[in-house]
Structure formats: structure tokens, C-alpha cells
Amino acid sequence: MTDSTLSLADFSTLERLMQEQGLDALQAALTQQGQGPQEDARTARLIQRALSLDAEFLRAHPEALFQCLYNRLRWFDAPDAAEHFVPGEAGPWSDPRSSVWRLANQWRQQWEARGDAPWVESLRPLPGPLEGTDQFFPHGAQVLCAAYSPNGALLATGTWEDERNVHVWDVATGQCIQTMEGHDGEVRGIAWSPDGSRLASGSRDHDACIWDVETGALLHAMTGQEGQVTSVAFSPDGQWLAAANLGWRIRLFDVATGQEVRTLKGHEQSVLSVDFHPSGRWLASGASDNTARIWDLQTGAQVARIPTETSVSSVAFSPNGEWLALSGMDGIIRVETRDWKRAPGACGQAPYSQLGWIGDSRLGALTFNRTEILDARSGDVLAARPYLSDGFQRSAAFHPDGRRFALTAADGRVLVGDVDAAPSPTLLAEQDRVKNLWGPAEGMRGVARQKQSIWSVDAEGRADTLPPDYREAPLQPWRVSPDGAILACPLMYLGERPFRPAVQLIDARSQQPVRALSAPPKDIPAQDKGGIASTVPMAFSPDGQLLAASLLKGAVHVWRVSDGVLLHTLRGPREPAALVDFTPDGAYVVSSYESSSRLLLHDVRSGAVAIDTQAAVHPTLAYAAAKLAPRIAVGQESGDVLLFDLPTGKHQTLHVSESPVIGLGLSPSGDVVAACSQDTWVRVFDARTGGRLQDLPHATLAFAVAVGDDVIVTQANDMRSRIFDLQTGALHVTLNGCTAPEDVLDRKYWETLGDHPVAFHRRKERAPFVHFHDTMEETLILRDGLVLGRGRTERDLLYVLKLHDPRARSAG
To answer: What CA–CA distance (Å, rounded) separates 174 from 584?
Structure first.
């Protein structure tokens, strides 16, 4: 097949070229097709951009070609795409010639006609525009600063990430080519040496560092400064580094040795920005004391003090050295360097947090909702690029040619775009990031708490916004009944007397409140001032007919869901409960208490205490219940495991190790128990005889375990999950990522999460049957393969995905 025979309407031609010659060959063929005048030219360019967005993933998973292209193109100009973007923003869906989504649906028909290939469908648009020149460089945490290299080929960024928080990006490809490790706190300032061979960074840890860009090596660390280092700058000859800090000081260092040369004192508050004059003779500094100051670098003397109305957040000399620009809340101030006098008037029409020179006649500047290019003499705005404010401090870097800019963000996605280009439509999901996902695995419904709203999502992917309730406790988890019909959330009553904590029940279909379940007044101490200070543990019974919750210290209340009748007040230690749950058969309420290290079981029918025992509760409760038998296991700090038979309450003791038990698993029948200890071993016992069956070694601490009929699954601190043979103890497979061990045994679909794209598995299968391109921080798989995900690469983005599994369809 030649490039000229590439048929966009026939997906198999794209797939064949990918399989036979690879992604680069497919991209080249699309480039050639995109240069022609025919109607397919634009479509070819869109396909090419879609491939580039997922290129790294596709090289590892070429079988996902259809999945990636469909999920990108289906939403590009589909009529139903507009509802997922910020209202009022124009998009390709309003173009009457829209046709790309029709092509994607045509491909889908071809793909599904085969009937043998699994794939993941995104039920919402994915981030990443297919048109325009915008790029997004993803980070693992908030990005605070950015700077282009002198030739504009590289971009350096500083982030809030732990330790690995200085990054270097190839601007042309958008790939991260270097990551530096050394700072213990977030990086607040970053700068390139004049020859582009070194980077300097300043951090909250009171340190400044100098790095070798090519190797990533730390050359010098200038530690112990008076405060957080806010800004760094190299001298024009590359011999000195200036570092400003919140301790009112500026320190000068010798770049070759890292030794301090001089300290500049005079500012009366935090120094926020520094810049060298092109001659190397002077240094300018701006501070929160409403001044900019000029320092003679030969003597260290202050030669000028320039008062302003507000803090000076950014200072920059023009390349020809004739002007100094200062930014603040009252606009941009221009200062002539021949006499250090302010020029009349101010540039721009807004408060600016950052600026930089583009040549000698233009300024790039950042305000709270746009980047601007200004004429440095007249102050006129020559170009502006708006963006939606995320409410956090941002910074910008301007490419040396003045046409591109890099904008940092709290979500870790650095936007690189054209200053004078229209912005791409903004996804609502990018503005309202998901913070928590709640719901039962394989349930009918999940709840997604976002920054500004709460969504209820059913197993078909339909999402409804729940009406706001001012009493809903914002930091508390929700629960969903097993049938998905009822949602439960803790309520916070502030300033009301008498104080009555409660759980609100909500009809999931109508989104309307049903009733509030309250603790009776007699249970509330008179001195209780109200408010919920800790997490409210609660749980629905397996049949959904009961709800148990700990609203008060020392008590768990059990209500009937259908009418709200309080059935029991179950007493425990006078402290907040850490966990409330039901045993798998629903016959007992389980509660645990961290301060006293106790576990209680109450009989649901009578409310009587069935078991009251000590338990290991750190880092989590060491407890397991058999699914098909009335037996539980409780771990002890002593290294023992207590096996209780219900309802008699009789128990036997198994000695596991000399270190505390931190994780437990029971086989469905209750005949086999596995225990994790702090000595990195998982030990397996016959629960009937007490005999030890297996010792399973781990490279790092194993903290969770589940026992099936023929395998044992563990999860460990090395971000690995392992599956062992129950009979022999042989290791079947090590999974590259974490998963809840019980999910491997019990769920129709389960996932592994880690530093790689999320992998989805079928029950008990060791190899994944399908992958999705983002790494995930959290997932919830509902009934029939509906997945809610909280992104890690696309930080805290809410994904709604559908697993398409031909095997399940044929079995059904």
C-alpha cells in the first residue's frame, strides 16, 4: 500500500499501515494526504494530531489505534459535544460541514463488525485540542514557574512535586527530556544560563540549585538562605547567580564554585524578583515593600530606590539595557536606566503578575485571565490570549520570538500556545476537577465529588448534578446503596441548637432528599457544640435495607432505610469510630476504634455485643471476613491472629510472627487465612488445624492480601500486586501496579494502577485485556464495565469510560 492509496473511510487501511510500517509511517502518509486540496486534507490533519496526542501510548499499545482515534475524533464536531464544554464557547460542532464524528462512527461499525477486539470508549471528550497549535505539558503537581532556553528550543518548569520537581521539555515534541531531583520543597523560580547549558532553581526549602541541563546532574546547592527562594537569575556572562528570598535578602553566588560572593541588604520585606542588566553592572530587584531597587554589583551598594504603589512582582531589563520594566497591581512601570527615573504613565490596562521583554520594543505580560503582548513605548496591547482563571497563582514564559507563551497551572498542565491565536474550547471537566469517587464496585451508581459540584453517575454513564445542600459536610465520604437507588451523605449543622448530627438520604433517580437520619437527642451530650471534626464512617447493609453510621463518639446507630426508623444504638469506646461496616451476610455490624485499638461486632437482630476484642489498627485495621461462612479474622499487635466463629464467639489463636499483623485475608469458606506482617512476609495457615501452609516472601512490605479458592493475591509497597498459587505458594505473576486484592478474586473487571497507563483485567486473569492511555489516581468500576476514573496524567480529570468486552457479549 502506498501513501496515495490511503483511504480514510476504511479503518483497516490505517490499521494495516500501522501494523506493517509503524506509527511514523502512518503519520507520514497522513502528512502527505493533508497537503492536498481535497476534502480529506483537513480530516487527515485531525487524525495526525490525534495520533500525536497518544503517540507514546500507541507505540506501546498499537492494538489501541481504533480506541485512540475514535475517542478523539468522535467528540471533535459531534452535535452532543457542546454540552461538555464551557457554555458560550464556539467549537467545530457549530460548523455545518462537521463530518469527522460521522467518519468515527463509520469506523466503529467496521470495528465492531469484527466482534473480537476489546476496547475502551470515553463517554466524554478527552483533553487535547485537535485543531490549533496548543500543547499541554503534563506534570504530577502544580507548576509554579517556567522559562524558555535562550534559543527557545527547550522549556524548563518548576513544580510542587516531591523532590523530582525541575523538568526540561523539548518544545517541538512536547516530550520531557530531563528531570532533576534535589529540592525538598516546591520550586518557585527558574532561570537559564546565557549559553543554555545550565539551569538554576530556587525553592521553598530555602535553597537555590545549579544543574547541568544535558546530564541532569546537580552541580551546586546553595542552602540555608534566610527564606524561600523566589527568583533566580544568571549574569550576562554566566559567572554569577542571583537568588532572591522571602528573608528580605539577595545573595550572589559564583556559578563555577557555588560559593557566595555577596549579600545585598536593603529591602524591608520579601524580595520577589531579580534581573541583571545586560552590561552585568547592575542588578534590579522587586519586593513586597512596594519598591524596586538597583544594586551596583562591583560594590554591592544600592544606587537607586524606585517607589511604587503596590508590590513589585516582576522586574526585567530590556535587551539593549535602556529600560527596566516593573509589574504590579497598578500596571507596568517603565524606568529609564540612564537616570533610573520612571517614564510617565503605565503600560497596559490591568494588574500584572509577571512580565518579560520580547526584543527591545515589546513586553509579554500576564494578568489574571489573559496573556498580553504590549508595545513597550506606547503601552498599547498588540495581542492578547484569554484563559479561564483557576483561582491559583500562575506564571508565564514568553518564547524569544514573541509568538508563543507557556502558562503554568495548578492542575499541572502547562499550556503552550500562540499569543494571538483563539483558544480552543475549554472542557468543563478541566474546570471542575474530581476530588473523590464513591460507590460500590460493580454497583449501579457512583458519586463523583468535584471542586464545585457533585455528580451522580449511573452504570450507563448518565450523569446528574446533585442539588447543592449547604448542610452537606464537604469533607465527608458518601455512600451508595447496593441497588444504586439511595445516596447517603453526612450533614453538618452549624450553629443550630440543639445540635443533631445526621445522615441525609437522597433519591438517586430524582436527586431529591428523602429523609435525614438523626441520632436521638438523648444520645447527644449537652456539652457537644456540634460540627463534624472527623470522618463519619457509615455503610449500607448488603441487601441495602439498613444503614449504620457513627455520628457521635462511642456509638453506632442503625436505621431502617425504608422509613428511617432507628433500630439500634450500638455502644462502644467513648471515642470516634474509625470504621463501620457489615459482615458479608449482613448479620453483624462491625466497628473499630483507633485510640483504644478495639474491634466490636454487634448482632443486627438484637443489637447485642457478639465480639469485643483488641485489634491492630495501624496503618489500617487488620480484619477479614469469610464470604460464605460465619468466620472472621482479627490481627493483633503481638503478631497473633484471632479466628472467631460466629455466632458462638469462640476463637482460636494463630501465631504469625513477632511483628504486628497489618493485613488479613480469609478464603470464601473461611478455611484458609493469610496474614501480612511488618517483616515483609505473608504467611498462610489452615484455619481448621492452625497449621502453616505457605510462607510468601516479598521484596517490600506487603500490606493487603486476599485468599481465593486456588490463588492468593497480595499488594505491596513497591507498587506491585502478586498472585500466588494457594497449594504450592509458587508466584504466578507480578503485576506492574496496585490493585485491591479482593477485586482480583471477586470482580468481573478489575484494574492495576501505577505509573503506567491503567490496565483493565477480567476476573482472575493475569494479563490485562485492554489499556487506557492515561494513568489513573483512582477508579471505580460499576456494573457492566462502566468506569469512573480520576486522572493522574490529566490531573484529577473525571473520566467516564466504557469497557467493551466481546467475550462478555458472546457469553451473554
So the answer is: 50
Grid coordinates of 659: 511483628
Cell, residue 774: 492515561
- The whole-angstrom separation of Cα 558 and Cα 590 is 12
Task: Specify the 3-state DSSP secondary structure of 604.
Answer: coil
Give the contacts of 812 (CB within 8 A, at least 6 positions apart). Answer: none
d(CA 183, CA 172): 27
Spatial CA neighbour of 511 closest among 534, 529, 536, 486? 486
- DSSP codes joined into one string, 699-756: SS-EEEEEE-SSEEEEEETTTEEEEEETTT--EEEEEESB--HHHHHH-SEEEEBSSS
Q: Which residues contact 782 (CB under 8 A, 6 or more apart)?
A: 439, 441, 442, 443, 444, 445, 446, 457, 458, 459, 788
d(CA 207, CA 228): 7
Residue 328's φ and ψ, nearest 5 degrees, are -165, -170
- Cα 648 to Cα 219: distance, rounded to the nearest angstrom: 68
CA gap 557, 569 in Å, rounded: 5
Rounded CA gap, 329 and 272, in Å?
14
Strands, DSSP E only, in 739-809? 749-752, 759-762, 770-771, 776-781, 786-791, 798-804
Dihedral angle computed from the Cα positions of residues 472, 476, 482 and 487, in that order, rounded to the nearest 10 degrees: 10
> Would you say the CATH fold of 467-614 matches that of 137-423?
yes
- What is the DSSP code (8-state) at residue 401? T
Instruction: Give me the phi and psi of 254, to 5 degrees please.
Output: -80, 120
Task: Write down the residue that cell numbers 507548576 correspond to.
Answer: 143
Which residues of 519-630 form beta strands (DSSP E)?
538-540, 546-552, 555-560, 566-571, 579-582, 588-593, 598-603, 609-614, 623-625
280-289, 523-532, 556-565, range with the lowest pLDDT? 523-532
Phi and psi for 128 in degrees, rounded to 5?
115, 105
Sign for the CA dihedral angle at 375, 379, 381, 385 comes to positive
Residue with cell 493475569: 766
* Cα–Cα separations (whole angstroms), residue 432 to 263, 457, 564, 792: 45, 15, 34, 15
Tens digit of each residue's pLDDT (9 = 90 or more) over 721-762: 999 999 999 999 999 999 999 999 999 999 999 989 999 999
Contact (Cβ atoms closer than 8 angstroms) between residue 550 and residue 594:
no
**What's the CATH number for 467-614?**
2.130.10.10
Q: Are the CB atoms for 260 and 241 separated by under 8 Å? A: no
d(C-alpha 724, C-alpha 382), whole Å: 66
Closest CA to 446 of 471, 463, 429: 463
Q: Which residue has the cell 555577596?
A: 262
Strands (E) in 421-536, as ranges, are 434-438, 445-450, 454-458, 463-465, 479-480, 486-491, 502-507, 512-518
Question: What's the confidence (pLDDT) of residue 470?
Answer: 58
pLDDT tens digits, residue range 411-452? 888 999 998 888 888 888 888 889 999 999 999 999 999 888
Torsion, Cα 62 63 67 73, to 10 degrees, reads 40
In the DSSP assignment, the letter for residue 4 is: G
- DSSP for 312-377, written as a single string: --EEEE-TTSSEEEEEETTEEEEEETTTTEEPSS-BSSS--SEEEEETTTEEEEEETTEEEEEETT
Cβ atoms 199, 192 nearer than 8 A: yes
The residue type at 779: T
- 458 pLDDT band, cuts 50/70/90, is very high
pLDDT exceeds 70 at position 166? yes
Domain 137-423 grouped into CATH 3.30.70.3450: no
What's the Cα-to-Cα distance from 781 to each of 18, 49, 739, rounded to whole Å? Answer: 31, 30, 12
Helix (H) or strand (E) holding 30, with range, is helix 23-33
Predicted TM-score (pTM) of the model is 0.86
Q: Show me where the domains of the chain are located.
A: 3-122, 137-423, 467-614
